[in-house]
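quick one, 200 residues, struct below
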Amino acid sequence: MPLVEYGVASSPLRGQTESGDQHLLRCNQCGILIAVIDGIGHGEEAAGAASAAALFLKRNINEPIISLVEGCHERLRCTRGVVLSVASIDPAHGMMTWLGVGNVQGVLMRSDTTKGNAKEVLLLRAGVVGAQLPPLQAAVLPITRGDTLFFATDGIRSNFVESLTTRENPQRAADRILKEFGSGNDDALVLVSRLTGIRL
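---
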């Protein structure tokens, strides 16, 4: 069974041919790693920094999440840096570990609202990966089949969280959020991942 059903929608800043916003969704030895990366600024240099971050994450996919971000910080010192949010899904144990540096918003919407909060919001720590890394502390959450993870860069207005539901198809949700909540003054990217392979 696939671990996730996902959709992604993105657009560069008007007038730019490259976007500094990128995403990663890759299997690792525990389950799957999901990340959204926003290169500082926009254009070619932002895209280069985001690509370097994505490449580092791919090459070190099995590292613990804090080690991944710390290593990414060292790798990006010669770039303008990125902000990012990243989640590691462990379907066998029904757990998700996530953390965010900068302003890539993360929200987990639960499919079963009878078990605690219907909406979990990622705590973001101020900083820039590659320039100013804050003290890192990952949060660990229980997850279940049907829970849906949303990541959005700052080209998406923050009030998109008020429109979220677990019932919407992930690709349709990503397209809708970009269309309805894109600010138009920055690169923008939305990644929506519904967890389908979680052991119950």
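The CA atoms of residues 73 and 129 lie 5 Å apart.
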